[in-house]
Amino acid sequence: VTEEHNEEPVGEHGAATETAPDEGASGDAASLAASVLAEEAARHAEQESSQVLFPDELLPGVRSDGISLKKGLAMGGGAATFVVLAILNSLDELQMAAISVLAPDIRDTFGVSDGTITFIASSSGAFVVLGAIPMGWAADRFRRIPIIGWSSIIFGAMVALSGWAVDAFTFFWA
């Protein structure tokens, strides 16, 4: 494929020299628009003639029949795996909602400001983001069921420790 380049005349030391405007070109907006549209049409024609590396029909899942929930559960490890993960996710959401709902009581109990409670609540989101890196590494190299089990045990221990927190500092680490 060859490309045409409109090169400016180059003078001494590689500096571009000024040229007189082409007297044949009108220089108005209509001729500029026409040339842009012509170049765009040529570009589209060239793209249509080029080979597509991965047509959409060959991509996995495109235009394929959907699967039922029963078949999806059978393919993904069964209903027990789905139920356990749903329960764990529900407990995580419950813990986050509890911090949001109980924030005024926690603030009053520990005698801290709203900013401290906001920092503690938002830092849990940062820990999730930072924890995704080692968890992804472990999930790629080890069996996932023990990872989920140990993560659940650690999560339960941290929730219990947050219940036993005596000040904002220990609540932050729990």
TrEMBL record:
Chain positions covered by the region annotation Disordered: 1-30
SUPFAM superfamilies documented for this protein: MFS general substrate transporter (SSF103473)
Regions that span the bilayer: 73-91, 111-133, 145-166
InterPro entries documented for this protein: MFS_dom, MFS_trans_sf
Record keywords: Membrane, Transmembrane, Transmembrane helix
Residues annotated as domain Major facilitator superfamily (MFS) profile: 81-174
GO molecular function: transmembrane transporter activity
Protein name: Major facilitator superfamily (MFS) profile domain-containing protein
